[in-house]
Fold each of these.
Amino acid sequence: MNQLYTEGKKTTMRPMSQEVPEKEHNLETQVDAMISKLKCCDLVEQLVLRNAGLTDELLNCLVTALKHSPSEVVLINLNLNSIGPPGVQILLDLIRLKPQINGLL
């Protein structure tokens, strides 16, 4: 099985005037890399972002890529992330569009 994987610690949001913490920047960079891979690769079956500090905003970017990805992702692990009600709605929309997703953690 092929999977995209990242794991990290929760980060906190800071005002725009402050410098972006390195961990947040790294997460954004990793999500951007995953999005690029999802756009062109049809081999991804699992997406694991456990305890990565993923927010609703980053989740929305990732789900947009998943919706258009040629990969048949069947498992998404988002355990221990800061996903709120908007993120849950984003995930429900994804599952309606991609019924092959049979595992959402």
Amino acid sequence: MTPEDETEDQFSEVFDDLHSVAHETEATTLGELVDALGRRGTGPLLVILSAVLILPVGMVPGMPGLVAIVFVLIGIQLLFVQPKLWMPARLRRITIKTETLKSIVDRARPLRRKARLLLSERLTFIIDSRAFQLANALILLLTGCVIFFIGFVPGLPFVLSIHILLIGLGLTARDGVVMSLGLTAIAPAIWLVAKVLF
């Protein structure tokens, strides 16, 4: 199996997990969703969460704030090298409608096919570097806090999710090049936030 095939399989498995969760009940909890994706690592979870903010479902009131909180929790997990993502029980009990999950799966599924062309396992020392892990943690913490407090600004959650998407893709495929792009892509987000605040 080629690295490209392995990458496509990774994303296929992620979407299969989402599909299963979406069709088990009329609604699922945030905790169930995070558990289903989190067992495959931080990368797939970041891909789906950032996709939520990029897709129209991200405009649902309260959705950016909810995603922002999970970003912060993942940042804490990476910062302290915790094996499993911890979430408060109250947050885990938040329900998500099946229609919302199905919309995410249907709209994000084309990403799986494009990933095969764009991603490959390369420069993996970047992925394994503790310095880059700390950088990812800080970026997630800052991005989550910004989205939570001023995510109501039209278009801001979309812009702030692009670098998270790239980081998630890089982690999932162990692609150091895409990971580096994600770290540098935060620059436009910083400029936009500064423009909004000042």
Amino acid sequence: MDLQTPCNACISINRKPDTLRRHSFSKSISLPNNRFKTMSELRTQVAVKYDTQQSLSVPSHKVTVHDRQRDVVYEFFVPEDQYILHTAEDQDITLPFACRHGCCTSCAVRVKSGELRQPEALGISAELKSKGYALLCVGYPSSDLEVETQDEDEVYWLQFGRYFARGPIERDDYALELAMLDE
């Protein structure tokens, strides 16, 4: 059985053009035409269409994050089709997170103004969502947005506190230290 290497036409069909690689939204780029014609191994014309306009036509929104733990305010732009946390990280902005899947409350924020979508946010209840809480790791901006980071334990207590009759559990460092000595 002879193994054949693919022809140049097949390679060019499967390869994305260099101009479609990731670009910052603040830069303008020139894009190729929507259709490319190439020849296959059988010498028939093949039309390949790249939908480049869709990714560039997505609106971006200004997101302002008041980080209470670090006493810092971050402002950056996020496209509607990207998670807020991921875009912040791409711009070297460090925000609190843990699971990145919307299952915990480490990246919880309180929305001060604006709107966001968070269809995958399992870590907070519908009740907390209605009170303005959101998760940055699975949140998409729908408008310009201003949010404030929250203490993870505080959000956890708001969500599950009614199930604990005695109130929040106080951390006992001495008992924790003794338990660590037993191991």
